[in-house]
Amino acid sequence: MAPPATSKPGRSLIALIVLLIGGVVWAFWPGTDSSVRLGLDLQGGTQVILVPQPVVEGTEITDEQLAQTVEIIRARVDGLGVAEAEVTTQGSGNSAAIVVSVPGLGQDRVVELVQRTALLNFRPVWNVLSPFPIDPADADAADGDAAESADDSASDGGAQSAEIVQAPDYSPEFQAEVDALDCIDPVNLAGGTPDDPTEWLGACDQSGGQKYVMEPAFIEGVSVTDANAQLTQQGIGWVVTLEFDSEGAGALAEASTELSALPECGSGATPCNAFAIVLDGVVVSAPRFNEPILGGQAQIEGDFNVEEARDLANVLKYGALPVTLDVVDITSVSATVGGDQLRAGIIAGLIGLALVSIYLLLYYRVLGLVAVMSLAVAGGLLYLFVVIFSKTIGLTLTLAGVAGAIVAVGITADSFIVYFERMRDELRDGRSLRQACDSGWVRARRTLLAADFVTLLAAVVLYFLSIGSVRGFAFILGLTTVIDLIIAFWFTHPVVVLMGRRKFMQGGSKWSGLDPERLGGHSALDTLAGQSRRKRRDDYQSSTAGDTAGDTAGDAAEVRS
Question: Is the pLDDT score of 360 beyond 60?
Answer without folding.
Answer: yes
